[in-house]
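In full, the data.
>
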Amino acid sequence: MSEKWYWTVEGADGRVRIGLTDQTRTELGDVSFVDLPKIGTVLAIGDALASIEATKAVLDFDTPFAGTVVAVNTVAIDKPSILSNSSQDDNWLVVLKN
């Protein structure tokens, strides 16, 4: 997947939060299901990061960074429509740490 699909925010502690860009949300439509890795999962660049089902598409997203999953957006798992929100406080997927 291209970088256009993701926004990323790197913290001072080296953690990287990954979420969906406005363009991605527009192209997906309303999100109805999201599958995210478990906390503790070690990912290499290109590994499966998320599977998202929406009104316009079903997509598998690969991770743009390597690291260990230290947080997942559990709200998005329970209420996938939150990923359609433009707020980075809501539409993030995971946090990785090297």
In short: Strands lie at 6-10, 15-20, 31-35, 42-43, 48-54, 58-62, 67-72, 92-97. The chain has one domain: 6-97. The chain has a mean pLDDT of 91.
